[in-house]
Amino acid sequence: MSAGPLKRPLGFYNLCLQTECLDETVSFYRELGFVATGEDAPGLRVSLAQGADVLTFMTFLEGDVINFRGAHIHKLMTELRRGGVRVTGYNIRADQQPLAVDDAGVPLPENECGHFTVYDPDGHELFFNTHPWERTPFEAAMGAGPRAPGGVVYCVHVADLAASQAFYETLGLRVAPDAGGAWVTPHARHEAIHFALRLRAGASAGPTLVLQWEAEDDRVPEPAGFVARGDGRWVGKDPDGRVLELAPTIGQ
Predict the structure, then answer these.
(1) Is residue 198 packed enough to be buried (19+ CB in 10 Å), middle (13-18) or exposed (0-12)?
(2) Percent of the chain surpassing pLDDT 70
(3) Nearest C-alpha neighbor of 130 from the set 70, 211, 178
(4) Tens of pLDDT, residues 167-192
(5) Pick from 246, 141, 160: nearest CA to 203
(6) Whole-prediction pTM value?
(7) DSSP character string of 115-174
(8) Are residues 248 and 222 in contact, defined by beta-carbon separation less than 8 angstroms?
(9) Radius of gyration (Cα) for the chain, nearest Å?
(10) 3-class secondary structure, 40
(11) At 27, which helix (H) or strand (E)?
(12) Got the DSSP string for 65-105?
């Protein structure tokens, strides 16, 4: 990594989660307070939201994906490569997301759409994609001020915490280490985007979702099949076997 942290916004963040039982999984998260966004493809994809946080459940994914949408794809890709980040799959399906280019083949700024993929040091996939109709809303939202904090934290376990911290810092994200790992959030200059990604040091079978449960008495009710951890949180699994933590406050 040689060119310093990226200063360009990555796009709006959401989580694309693999599911083998779409209807059951969607019903499970709706019972936890998530609501449909209307961006559905029957039998293939359903998006649910909790405040500003969006979870998109897909039957055709091979694994969970951290997704960023709306940014200038070609400029973003160019800057990431300049920073030493390996980019793969750039417009591998260009027929679905065509770029508008000039006579020299340079993407036109008003339609810098397309997609590419980046993997962090532990192989977690970050997928950047922007459709033509997302460009203008993204630019408008970026100038509209801060978004409200969300209540979903995506926790991934990393083998080399220092290497992962350096990677996410190169993406222009703010990394705050603590005793158990590090928090990754958007930089203050990109306050229109809000999310929390948690790096946990050590091996794990897979990622964990931490959901903030708003309770007046600062306790979370016991969901069926969940076990109390003793610190005010409950731990269990969703229908796809994904580890899920419910907490009155977002924590480690």
Answers:
(1) buried
(2) 82
(3) 70
(4) 999 999 999 999 889 999 998 777 77
(5) 160
(6) 0.86
(7) EEEEE-TT--EEEEEE-GGGHHHHHHHHTS-PPPP-SEEEEEEES-HHHHHHHHHHTTEE
(8) no
(9) 18
(10) coil
(11) helix 22-31
(12) EEEEESS-HHHHHHHHHHTT---B-TTTTTTTSPPPB-TTS
Residue 89 in tokens: 């799959």
Lowest mean pLDDT among 2-6, 61-65, 119-123, 238-242: 2-6
Contacts 24+ apart (CB under 8 A), 93-100: 97/129, 97/130, 97/131, 97/132, 99/73, 99/74
pLDDT higher than threshold 90 for residue 217: no
pLDDT tens-digit readout, 79-136: 999 999 999 988 766 555 555 666 777 666 555 788 899 999 999 999 999 887 787 7
| Separation between Cα atoms, residue 56 and residue 37, nearest integer Å | 10
Tokens of 1: 């990594």
Question: How far is C-alpha 103 from the chain's CA centre?
Answer: 35
Considering all CA atoms of the chain, what is the largest pairwise distance in Å, rounded to the nearest integer?
64
Residue identified by tokens 């200063």 is: 7
Residue with tokens 């679905």: 96
Tokens of 12: 């709006």
Neighbour-count burial of 218, counting CB atoms closer than 10 A to its CB (0-12 exposed, 13-18 middle, 19+ buried): exposed
